[in-house]
Amino acid sequence: MSVQTTAFNDLSARAEAQLYERPNWIRRLLRVARQKPLGTVGAVIVIVFLVTASIAPTISPYDARTTVAKPLQSPDSDHWLGTDAIGHDVFSRVLEGSQISLVIALTITAIFVVLGTSLGLIAGYFQGPMDYIIQRSGEIWTAFPNLIALLLIVSILGPPTTTGGTLLNIAWDLRNLIFALSLGALFGGSRIIRGVTLSLKQTDYVLAARTIGAGDTRIIFKHLLPNVLPFVIVGATSGLAAVILAEAALSFLGLGVAPGTPSWGQDLSGRNRQFFRDAPWVALAPGVAISLCVVGFNLMGDALRDVLDPRLRQ
Fold it and tell me: CA torsion angle for 289, 281, 65, 250 (degrees, to 10)?
C-alpha cells in the first residue's frame, strides 16, 4: 500500500511540475534568443515594422496625402520629423510608407522563397528538359538590362495606383509592379539554388538515400531542402534592400507608385532630393527607415541561417 501511495505521489508531483513547465517551443525560442542576441534584435526590429505597417493609418497623426503645415518646416512638437516640400507631415508619410515598401518587399521575397526555390530544386535535381527550359528562360531575362526590362513591363501593364486599406488590398493594387520586380528575383534566385542543388546531389548521404530506395520527393524534401534553406534565407534577406531600391528607381522615373502615394522609395528619390541640403529630414527619415528595416531583416536572416543549417547545429 505504501509503495502504491509513493508512486501516486510521484506521479502527481510530476504532473504538477509539467503543468507549470514552459512549453517546449517556448524553451527552444528562449534558448535561441540567448544564443543569437543580434538575431533577436533583428527580429524585434522586423516585428515592430510589420506591426507598424499593419496599423499605420490608425496611429498616423496626420493624413499622409494632405498638406497640414508650411512646406519644409523643421521638426517640432507638432511635426516630429518636419514637413516636406508640399507640407505633408514626414512622420505620417514614413508610417504609411512602410505599408507600400514592406508589402512590395515581402511579397516578392515570398515569391522568391516559394517559386524560386522550387524551380532551383527541380532544375538542379532532375536536370534534363526541365532544367533547359528554366535556365534558358533566365538567360533571356538577364540578356536585357534590368532597369529597361522593368520599365518595359510596367509601361505595358500600366503604373500601379493604391488607395490604401489592408496590406492584402495594397498588394493587389500593386500587382503590376510586384510582377515586374518578382521576375528578376525569381530567375536570379533559382539559378543560385540550382547550383547548390547540383553540388548537394552528389554528396554521400544523397547517394546513400537513393541506394536504399528513397524516392525523389523524399530526397528533395528530407535531404536537399534543409541544406538549401540557409542559402534561400540569405538570398531573401539580402534581396529586400534591392527590391526597395528598385521600387525607388521606378518611382523616380514615374513608373512606380502613383505620385503623392506615401512610399519610402518615392520620398527618398523623388522631389525631396533637391531639398536635402536645406531640409535634410525630408529624405533622411525614409532613408533611416529603409536602413533599419534592412538591418533588421539581415540580422534575423543570419540567425535563422545558423539555426536552420544542419551543418551549423550543435
Answer: -60
Please choose, from the candidates 117, 61, 108, 106, the residue with its C-alpha nearest in 3D space to the C-alpha of residue 88.
61
**Rounded-to-integer distance, Cα 115 and Cα 306, Å:** 23
* Cα gap 99→50, rounded to integer Å: 9
Q: Tell me the range of 2-16, 20-34, 168-182, 191-205 where mean pLDDT is highest.
A: 191-205
Cell 509503495 appears where? 3
pLDDT at 20: 45
Query: How many Cβ atoms sit within 10 Å of the Cβ of residue 5?
Result: 9
Which cell numbers in the block locate residue 298? 539581415
CATH of span 37-312: 1.10.3720.10
Evaluate whether 307 touches 32 at the Cβ level (below 8 Å): yes
Closest by CA to 19, choosing from 11, 8, 7, 30, is 11
Helix axes 175-201, 117-126, angle to 10 degrees: 30
226 vs 146, 209, 218, 253, 298, CA distance in Å?
A: 31, 15, 12, 41, 20
Decide if pLDDT at 146 tops 90.
no
CB distance 228 to 117 below 8 Å: yes
Q: What is the rounded CA–CA span in Å between residue 277 and residue 200? A: 52
Residue 91 CB partners (closer than 8 Å, separation 6+): 60, 61, 79, 80, 81, 285
Greatest mean pLDDT among 14-23, 124-133, 136-145 lies in: 124-133
| pTM, to two decimals | 0.78
Phi, psi of 83 (to 5 degrees): -125, 160
Over residues 73-129, the pLDDT tens digits come to 889 888 999 998 888 899 999 998 888 888 888 888 888 888 889 999 999 998 888
The C-alpha cell of 141 is what? 531575362
Within 13 Å and on the Cβ side, how many CA atoms surround 177? 28
270 vs 156, higher pLDDT: 156
